[in-house]
Design a protein that fits this description.
alpha+beta; eight-stranded mixed sheet; globular
C-alpha cells in the first residue's frame, strides 16, 4: 500500500520481500554509521531490523520508481527527544539512503514529501530532525527543507557518542513556506 509518493519515489510499508534490497544498502560501511548504528554484518542482522519496521507504523520503505528497488527508509517517529517540548504534538523525521543514490537530491525530495504528509495527516505542532555534526549531507537536507536550528546535545548510540544538532520545523513555518 502506497502511503505517499513523489515523481521519483514511492513511500510504503516495508514487507518481507524487501530483505535483499534493505540488506544491500544497510551492509555498506558508512550508511548506518552516519545515523548512529553499525552497518549490518549479515542478512540476519537486516532481518531483525526489517521485522521491527514491518511491525511498526513509523518507518516507510523508500522505493525508487525507475527500478522499483527499496533504496532507503524514512521514519516519522513518535518520540519526544526534546524534554522541554515533550507535551507538544510532534514527530521526529529520520532517514537513511543507499550510498548508491547519494548526491541526486532524492533525500531532500523524500524529506519534503514526508513533512507534507506528516503535517497533513497528523495534528502536529512541529517536526524535529537531527544530524551528527560529522554528517554534512544530512545537515544540507535539513536546511533545504526549512528546519531551524534548535540546540545541540551529546547523543549516545551503540557505536559511540556524537554531537547531535537538533532542528525544528513548526506547523506555522511549514505553512508559510508552502504558501
Amino acid at each position: 500500500m502506497i502511503i505517499f509518493e513523489t515523481p521519483r519515489l514511492i513511500f510504503r510499508c516495508f514487507k518481507d520481500s524487501d530483505l535483499a534490497d534493505f540488506n544491500e544498502y544497510a551492509k555498506v560501511e558508512g550508511v548506518g554509521e552516519a545515523a548512529g548504528w553499525p552497518h549490518h554484518k549479515s542478512l540476519e542482522d537486516s532481518k531483525k531490523i526489517l521485522d521491527k519496521f514491518i511491525s511498526d507504523d513509523e518507518v516507510f520503505a523508500i522505493v525508487y520508481r525507475e527500478n522499483n528497488k527499496v533504496i532507503g527508509s524514512l521514519g516519522l517517529h513518535r518520540r519526544a527527544e526534546i524534554a522541554e517540548l515533550k507535551d507538544k504534538k510532534q514527530r521526529e523525521l529520520g532517514y537513511v539512503l543507499s550510498k548508491d543514490y547519494w548526491g541526486n537530491g532524492l533525500m531532500t525530495e523524500a524529506a519534503s514529501a514526508a513533512i507534507t504528509y506528516a503535517f497533513n495527516n497528523f495534528d502536529l505542532e512541529f517536526i524535529m530532525c537531527a544530524h551528527f555534526d560529522i554528517n554534512e549531507r544530512s545537515k544540507r537536507v535539513i536546511e533545504k527543507t526549512g528546519f531551524k536550528f534548535y540546540n545541540q546535545s551529546i547523543y549516545k548510540t551503540v557505536i559511540g557518542e556524537f554531537n547531535s544538532l537538533r532542528y525544528i520545523l513548526s506547523r506555522e513555518d511549514y505553512l508559510e513556506n508552502v504558501a
